[in-house]
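Quick entry between incubations.
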Amino acid sequence: MNFRKNASLLVGLAIPLVLIIAVIVSIYIPRLTNKPPHYNFLYTSNNYYPSNVRFKVQQGKLIREELPLDPSYPQPIKDSLAITEPTFFLHDVTRNESREISFAEAQQLKLDPNRESPDGYSLQQGSNNGVFPFFYNGPYGVSWFLTGHTTSHKMNVKQTTDYGGVELLGWVIP
Amino acid sequence: MNKQELLESIKQLSHDNQLSRDELIAAYEEGQGMSTITTPSGRRFALTDILYYLGGVIVALGLIVLIAQNWSYLTTATQLLVTLGAGIAAYSIGVLFSQGQHESRLANPFFLISGLILPLGIGIAFHKAGYNTSTSLNQSLIALLLFAVYAASTFFFRKTIFTIFTFIFGTFLFFSFTSYLAVGSPFLLEWNFWPYRILAVGASYLLLGHYLSHTTQRRLSGVLYSLGSLAFFGAALWLGGWKPEQNMLWEGLFPLLVCGGIGLSIYLKSRSILIFSSLFLVGYILKITSEYFSDTIGWSVSLVIVGLSLIFTGYLTFYLNKKYLSLTATQNT
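Done. Structure below.
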C-alpha cells in the first residue's frame, strides 16, 4: 500500500483507534500500578424509610435516630407513615460480594463515615447504558464503582430494587 | 476516437479509480435522452435514482410503522420475520439485482431498505434472545455485526450506499464501544469524554472525506467534510466551556483551529469546510463577547463589536469563496 497516497485514509482510521487504545491504557495501567481497595463498606438499599428516620455513624458506631414527626402533618399522613426499615448490606471488597446483615450486626461494626475510604477510594455510580436510545430495554442499568487513584473497580453491590439506590453508611475499620 | 479506444480509456480510468460505474451509466443514459438532474457537485443524478431511494425509504418506514402499530399482536416469530427477515430479504434481492447488467441500479433501494431495517431486526433478535439491548456492551455487539456486514459489502460491491452505511455503523460502533469502556471508569464521564469522542470522529471524517475525494466515491467527500467540520468545531467549542468553568486552553486554541479550517478549505477546495469554519468563528465571537465583555464594556458596545466582526467574517468568507473556490467548486462541495 502506498502510504503517501493513502495517508488520509490511514490517519483517519487511526484517530478513533488511538482514542480507544488511550482509554484502555488509562483504565488498565493504573490498575496494575495502584493498590486495589481493601476497606469493606456498609450500605443500605431500598431507602424508602420515613423522612423522620436517620441512620448515621457517631463515634465509629451506627446509630438510628427517630425524630418526632412534623406536627403540621395531618393525622392521616402520620398514620400512613408506617416505619419500614431499610436493608443493610456489608460489601466484602476482596471477594466483591454483598451480604445482607441485620441492624444489630451493623451496630457491631467500627465504621469510618467519610465519603472517601482511608485508602483513598469513594463509592460512585456509573451507567452501563448504550448510546442508542432506540434499543431501550429498561430498566436502565446502574453499576457501582470504587473510584480513586485514577482507577476504578466495579463492585457487585446487591440492591433490593433496580431503583432503590445505594446509600453508603461507612467504611469498616478492621 | 473509435469504440475500442474509448473502451480502453474507460478501463484505464476505472483502474485508476477516476471513473465510477454510476458516472459511466449516467453518461450513457444522458446519451439515450434519459432524464437527469445535475447536483451542486456536478454529478448527474438520474431522476429514476431519486424515485428508487424515495421508494426504499417509504418501504422501510412502512415496515417500521407496521411493526410499531401491531407489536403486541405479533408473535416472536412474526416480529423477527418482519424485521430481521425483511432486512435479510431486501439485502438478498439487492445482491441478485446487482448481478444483472440492467438492474444493477435497482439494487440500491433494496440495500437502503436492508440498511434501515437490519439494525431493528438484529436489535429485536438480541432482545428476544434475552439480551438487554440498552447496555453499551450489547449495542457494541449489534454495531460490530452491522459494521462487519456493511464494510465487507463495501469491499465486495464497491457501492456508495454501502460506504454510507459503513460510516453510520462504524460511528455507532465507536460511540457504543467507548461508552462500554467508560462503564469501567466513571471518572471518564467527568472528563468531557463526549466532546473528545466527537472531536475524534470529526477529524476522522475530514481525513476520510479527503481520501474519498480521490476515489470513485468522491461525491461522499462533500458530506463528510460538512459532518466532520460540524463535529470537530462543535466539539472544540464545547470543550472551551462557559465562564466560570471555562477551559482556557480550548478557548485560546479555538480561533487557531478555525483559521486552520479556513486554510484547509482552500487547500481541499471545500466550500462546506469554509462555511462551517466561518459559522463557528461567528459563534465563537458571540460566545467570547457575551462571556467576557458584556459585563465590562456593556452590551451596546459589545453588539457593535460583534456586528463588525460578523461583517468582516462574512466578507472574508465571500472573498475566499470567490477567489479560491468558485472556479473549482464543482470538484468538492
